[in-house]
Structure of histidine kinase:
Amino acid sequence: PVEYECTPMKEGEMLTGAVITFRDVTERREVERMKDEFVSIVSHELRTPLTSIRGSLGLLAAGKLGEVPEKGRRMLDIAVQNTDRLVRLINDILDIERIESGRVTMEVRSTDAAELAHQAVEVMAAMAERAGIRLFAWAERLPLAADPDRILQVLTNLLSNAVKFSPPGGEVTVTTEAREGEVLFRVVDQGRGIPEDRLDAIFERFQQVDSSDAREKGGTGLGLAICRSIVQQHGGRIWVESEMGKGSTFLFTLPTQTPGIPAPLPAPEPA
Ligand code: ADP
């Protein structure tokens, strides 16, 4: 396969010619294919034995195989935590590869923005409570054509970050708002904020503001890249606004109607 690029040459405003560059991309495509294959094999070969290790550790930690001495229990807890982190990492790698390569299609149906926002808050309630964060949804009922499971994944990812990067006593809110032809979701926190020069970068894979974020907060550095892929596959946009020390607001839009799919009926008024 060959790619080409055309660069116009100008003298002032006058077009005097053009340079066409042809590039043989056979090698690059092959490298990309090998990378995809490598990621897929590694992830699958790692996940199966890891699931089995996690199972055994879980049985031991739960005392199902007899009493574990205090010191051993602490070690087991650390082993369980780290195994869980590895499982999350592998699942995230698999997920992003599948979404970005277009191997998972979004199962778009009629759904409702407020319902998704409330569901996400419910899913995250226990984590927020443990961290001492108050979590709210101020959401309007707005009809949407989207894959509800995937949008829930985006919202829970954003909420989990908001909780992770906020001090105890903070507040996190999800809101929804109708815009021209789209719905705008906001996840607002009062956490540590994100430096201006990192606002775009954090949506790339494995990009973190602080290199210790993954280790200390148990993240994988893939959450926002996954969110971006899902939102873009729906024809929406995602970005962040932030002020250091004051908090961050993650925003994403979803079109009210996806091309080729009829707009859903308006959601009924709550009884
Ligand atoms: P992770 O698994 O590390 O949370 P993400 O892709 O979800 O990976 O986020 C990437 C990085 O962006 C985080 O490690 C953190 O540095 C920064 N970040 C994400 N959300 C927030 C937030 N709400 N407040 C401050 N920093 C954030």
User: Anything to note?
Assistant: The chain has a mean pLDDT of 87.
